[in-house]
Amino acid sequence: MSSKNRLIYLPLGGAGEIGMNAYVYGYGPKGKERYILVDLGVTFPDMDSTPGVDLIYADIDWLVQRADRLEAIFITHGHEDHIGALPLGWPKLKVPIYTRTFTGNLAMHKMEDRGLDPLQVRVVQPWPETIKAGPFTVSFLPVSHSIPESSALVIDSPAGRVVHTGDFKLDESPVVGEPFQPDLWAEVAGDGIQALVCDSTNVFSPAAGRSEATVGPAIEQLIKQSSGMMVATTFASNVARVRTLAMAGQAAGRSIVLLGRAMRRMVEAAVESGVLTDFPTTIPAEDATNVPRENLMLLVTGSQGERRAASAQLARGKYMGLTMKEGDTFLFSSKTIPGNEKGVGHIVNAFSEMGVHVVDDGADLYHVSGHANRPDLERVHKIMKPKIVVPMHGEHRHLRKHRDLAQGNGFASVIAPNGTMVDLTGDAPQIVEHIEAGRTYLDGKVQIGAFDGIVRDRIRMALNGLLVINLIMDENDEPLGEPWAEIKGLPEVGLSKVPLSELLENDLAQLMNRTDDKVLMDDDKLEEALRRRTRQVAQEELGRKPEVMVVISRLMA
Amino acid sequence: MSSKNRLIYLPLGGAGEIGMNAYVYGYGPKGKERYILVDLGVTFPDMDSTPGVDLIYADIDWLVQRADRLEAIFITHGHEDHIGALPLGWPKLKVPIYTRTFTGNLAMHKMEDRGLDPLQVRVVQPWPETIKAGPFTVSFLPVSHSIPESSALVIDSPAGRVVHTGDFKLDESPVVGEPFQPDLWAEVAGDGIQALVCDSTNVFSPAAGRSEATVGPAIEQLIKQSSGMMVATTFASNVARVRTLAMAGQAAGRSIVLLGRAMRRMVEAAVESGVLTDFPTTIPAEDATNVPRENLMLLVTGSQGERRAASAQLARGKYMGLTMKEGDTFLFSSKTIPGNEKGVGHIVNAFSEMGVHVVDDGADLYHVSGHANRPDLERVHKIMKPKIVVPMHGEHRHLRKHRDLAQGNGFASVIAPNGTMVDLTGDAPQIVEHIEAGRTYLDGKVQIGAFDGIVRDRIRMALNGLLVINLIMDENDEPLGEPWAEIKGLPEVGLSKVPLSELLENDLAQLMNRTDDKVLMDDDKLEEALRRRTRQVAQEELGRKPEVMVVISRLMA
After folding, report:
1. How many residue pairs bridge chain A and chain B with CB atoms within 8 Å of each other?
2. Was domain B212-359 assigned CATH 3.40.50.150?
3. Do B488 and A549 touch (CB under 8 A)?
4. pLDDT digits (tens, 9 = 90+) for A121-155
5. Which of A366, A506, A520, B174 would you label with B131, given CA atoms 20 to 30 Å apart?
6. A114 and A90 in contact (C-beta within 8 Å)?
7. pLDDT band (50, 70, 90) for residue B339
């Protein structure tokens, strides 16, 4: 039994959340499988749960412990949630990285930025070209999405063919990049698909998705109606949209300006890698101030309200010498990702105060999604006719809905969130193991754990404020002077109107007087006594219990 | 000129945001106006900008300084953003509070909860009954909204009639409370309206609003299809919805359980004040465990994903002995307020993991808004035919859109965000003054300012972590031992793998050795030197610059 070969699927990230994708496939006898890793992405921190953290990515310890059996990493496309952790995880895995050209351009820059060898990234051609990786033969199948050269992976093993969709939509006229080709997908499905591991992001969207080509005319119309400066934002990586916006601006006789580092870099990468051949001429921001504003169109970063992006800087005042004013138009050619509503709202209101006409995607005229909607998913299920559908790239509710959809149409399916190892060998998916999956943080330059208390302490200081109690004990274990208090993130004066530090110092001095010698000699007990009393005083004075740090210095004889 | 009487409008909160409503009206010669205050509400803190804060409300200092000229406070309805700061602000204003019965019930409880006299709240009957308040005669005009007995205020002054809508929608069958009565509004408008000060919340909603009565049948349908336990959440204060849900549950033969303090309290207040006369019998949570789950319907608090509400507790496991499981249904009969998406998402996913069928308002079947949509606003403008429309209750973008709408239909209008004093006396609104308007925080039991640095310090500790550097200086201004470091919210070990505290202590000891006596004797300079070096070391080791607190203890001779 144990020598029987099996084909396994193990999501380490991306299944049970939208973000930090990392999927392991394995083939071989149990415990001796050879592996490949698909994608290694990040997710972004927030103030609620991860203040101060720079990036969040999947805990890949399980795979690191088995790195000797890992053959390669395949990156489906260049979005941060698929590629962002590559330079963070790679040094522990040290296997070749395969991507297509545009993604490779981004990946190489990422490796270089962290001082790693960009030549670990190997650029390959799409289907029907294949890469051999241990027991697997892998091919990049072009799909349409909101970034160029996105690919599904066709993963062949002795146990059959798996198609891992990556992020995709069904777009037969995607403006930039390859259209959805039903015939090509049918060709891939020709010899039978063992499992379709499939994007679930838009499973709750009931109508078929619209093509990227539909937004151009609406944007052209809008620009024609705009009399002042035109400013538009979208994800910089949505090169098709950036091109659509630029072409519409050009058609209206406007000079195009790219604002924000990501915007310039993405267009560069797209031109360098040959996916973008006809982008309008742009002018540098410095020259834009000489152009009448009704002849200008700015394409700016910051569609999600990011504080440091170009849109937010324009909302606060000036960016690269440019300012917005009454009569200008600002277009969100984007959807606000849940959680970013407040940041986006701040920008909209700031522009409103300036008299800027803000146009958002409320009417779905100026934006289309990059993911397959429910009817699109069903269409793919039916083209591919897999034995098994495994929903991925979704929160638990998306995975559930997608599983129900697949089962309803007669496919075997399973909900497999991060850490769920699924045997795909038979007619139905079998959960064979649960491994500990989690997240890890890049904090400044240091990797920290989600549960090591660092972030918890930050959250507590933010919610509760901090009191630092200092005390010096002399050589005879007697207090030298009185304890004193330092306050951070708390009112200096509470209900009694006496300064809190004064109250605390008096109160703790009295506490010291009545504390017996055994406690005075024991740092832990003394700390605890001071902490408890400090919290009581704060509760009475402020109506809250702060974090308390007690620092006892003992002078040595 | 200065002795000429004028009618002024001054929003202190609620205009430029949705929340913390507080509007001042004045009449009299400039600088001698007599005032009334309409509403005194709160807004809720968030981790991004106000961690640890309990409540946010309008800074009413301007009015407090003129409290001798304030006649009364009028509360339009019982939502927290209109009533929540009443017991916080009242002690500085000390004037009678006028409300209708149901609102009064809530207001009295709020006063009592803070140890204030509930009899300051005076319950009055609606239009045509009036209250005299200095130069003003005020009447409560029933409007429909998502809480019982909401009212517009008809404010008569020698300079004409102002109608302050409060929050409202046009609902001719609101289930609980008074329907919209076009005739009554026309009657109020009969003698001419000087100014309509009008809710702007839903000005971006292009279709006319739907009636509360439309959600009942859909909910009944859903309950009939549900085989397990049925759980539904909505705002507790939406008594009409709570009733609709309960009636639908009862019709399906289910026992109704109210879960969560606010849910029970609101139903109680509604029954006590006579607005709710036919609420189904409920059973206590303790008895519910004896009822088969397919015969149960729970109405629970926490439609916005609040961590301590009943819905979140059920999502985490057990609440009052009740648990959810496979086959149960959870209905959000509510809309997620922007900013709460993540909290709601957590709950939905937790239920998904349990196998619970979650139904949200995605299809707009199970929820309707309590605010007037754009066509409804236009309808009211046209019924009231005011000289002036002043948009309120909205972010800046809402005020702008509403002003444009009013002007487009031929009404004089103005954008007047918080702090903008508008003279409403003439044919067109005139901005006559800008006063400093802001927000103030209730933090535990203490009122703190938005700009006094307390919250800023909390945010910094959360984003940057904290290092406390301790140093004892002896009687001769020489260091006694070495400086030492305490770490909170930072990794203990950085890039060099040597404990950070050790590194810092060695480094700072060396710094002390090379520091000259002048600096050693000067606390400020010594602190600054230690702080700067500490941040450098942290930057090298951790790749981030923490908050640094330096504590120098000097022993006295």
Report:
1. 178
2. no
3. yes
4. 999 999 999 999 999 999 999 999 999 999 999 99
5. B174
6. no
7. confident
